[in-house]
Amino acid sequence: MAPILTSLLIGALFGAGLAISGMMNPAKVLGFLDFAGDWDPTLAFVMGGALLVSVPGFALARKRPKPALETGFQMPTRRDIDGRLIGGAAVFGVGWGLSGFCPGPALSAMATGVPGVYVFVAAMVAGMAAYRFLLSR
Amino acid sequence: MENFTPFSGLIGGLMIGLSATLLILVNGRIAGISGIFGGLLSASGRELPWRLAFVVGLVIGPLLVGLAQGAVPAVDIQGRWPMLIAGGLLVGFGSRLGSGCTSGHGVCGLARGSARSFAATATFFGVAIVTVYVVRHLVGG
To answer: How is residue B102 annotated by DSSP?
Structure first.
């Protein structure tokens, strides 16, 4: 039960961070991605702030034998840069540029009740399901 | 740069980084939202509840900010629905194919010094910037 409760609280902290940072708002994200327009550098400060904590955080995790509530860390182990990684990132980049939403902000933005958010999330679920049925082994 | 909000951006960013740090130190998991959420489609048993709890938390977070500030921060969707639907399909499919999104590759992968995440992050930022340029300045005019 404890890992479920901590996951809920840590998810809420993530969602609150997205809301406060402005990244829940696709207009703000598109403002960063639009170098030729009225450029808004805020996203760089959000990423910088996140890395300021997560870099030492992951360094600390590497030194610990196991997480507080589980038997082991589930760290990614792959090292190869393959076509799926780059192709997937490129497809994601097109979708991100078209909408201004990536998965975290889109889910958090459901809190606003704006109809377009649910349209995006439904399409995102369909895209994930399509991947699962077409390409995942 | 009239919309530039560096202070709230930095504060929110620190909270996101703290969340990713706590999830690895407490639950031993990577805070990659596409992986956590996408896993809901395939996970079973023990893998399901913590993922669902995290996603519920993602929605509760902005509501708590709304309680504290008086209103949930506004979301301003600019494109029409067909573009939003296309964006959602591509974000969902691409983030799963590429094993991550802005949080998993960006915040966590870069922090781990993962070469895969550096490559993915450079790719999706580059492609998104080109996409916005095409939509706003070539097609949109």
So the answer is: I
